[in-house]
Amino acid sequence: MATDPALDSYSAIVAGVAATLTPKVASLRVPNSGGRGGEGLGSAVAYTGDGFLLTNAHVVGRSSGGTALFADGTSAPFTVVGTDVLSDLAVVRAAGPTPPPAELGEADRLVVGQLVVAVGSPGLAGSVTAGVVSALGRSLPTRSGSAARLVEDVIQTDAALNPGNSGGALADAQARVVGINTAVAGVGLGLAVPVNATTRRIIAALMRDGRVRRAYLGLVTVPAPLSAALRERFGRSSGLRVAEVVPDGPAARAGLRTGDLLLAASGRPVSAAQDLQRLMFDDAIGKPLPITVMRNGALVDVIAQPVELVSA
């Protein structure tokens, strides 16, 4: 029987990614919190050569540590270095020898239809599934207390995610990790937190400080189309309509109002919630933030001063 060259090529790519990444993806055993007994399972990706691993915040939950098991049969206790519920990312550190770190890719370069491979370690054996990027730019709502956020540019794939695969790697054909698998979006669909500049910033903060400091404006916004005149003037089709202004918050004190159409912040175009969120990190706390809005047919400039977001 003649072999299918395309299938052979596809199989070779998937097998190559599996061979490269399976040793670099650990199985995490995390004791259940609250005195319930038992343990949860998840996966983690080797990030540095000195024991730092990437996983999901929901995998470690409120636990302070657990056990990491590797493909070569070794294991090591780990401690939770930092978690960020609003991005569903966490950094843990194993106390013993760990595999060499996985190579990180760049999720912003993915295209719909591109081959991706999900590698997890939900138990003693690794789990590998392959598929394609089925959608880009998805948003995954997350919440920490009263603080809510959208994880931006989430990757949707039809590579099946098995139980325990959360925290594992989503890789491209060169075995570069482009996402951290986080959730099942439906039958045959999985979601991954992208590896990009924002993610790297979050990971660095978790490794350095154990948490991510974010700025807070006190705004609720929704995407809104621009008029033909504004589209021509600003070269884009949408902005952010202010749906709610939190009383006595930074936005309210700056004079922003419900119904304002946000067009720019800190001199950068704002056309989606993610554009504003990218500015809301620690370096914006307490600093003047110029904002341009359209109000009653006129452009209005205000200066807001974000405060630090505190989870309830």
Task: Characterise this structure.
A hairpin with a 4-residue loop joins β5 (75-84) and β6. By secondary structure, the chain is of the alpha+beta class. The strands form four sheets. It has a six-stranded antiparallel beta barrel with strand order 1-2-3-6-5-4. The protein has three domains: 5-94, Trypsin-like serine proteases (Thrombin, subunit H, Beta Barrel); 107-196, Thrombin, subunit H (Beta Barrel), CATH 2.40.10; 215-308, PDZ domain (Pdz3 Domain, Roll), CATH 2.30.42. The chain has six helices and 20 strands. The mean pLDDT is 88. The relative contact order is 0.13. It has helices spanning 5-21, 57-60, 197-209, 228-234, 250-254, 273-277, and strands at 25-31, 39-46, 52-55, 65-69, 75-84, 89-94, 115-120, 127-144, 147-157, 169-171, 177-186, 189-194, 215-216, 219-225, 238-245, 261-265, 268-269, 289-295, 298-304, 307-308. The termini are far apart.
Task: Provide a compact summary of the structure.
With 312 residues, this protein is of the alpha+beta class. It has helices at residues 5-21, 57-60, 197-209, 228-234, 250-254, 273-277, and strands spanning 25-31, 39-46, 52-55, 65-69, 75-84, 89-94, 115-120, 127-144, 147-157, 169-171, 177-186, 189-194, 215-216, 219-225, 238-245, 261-265, 268-269, 289-295, 298-304, 307-308.
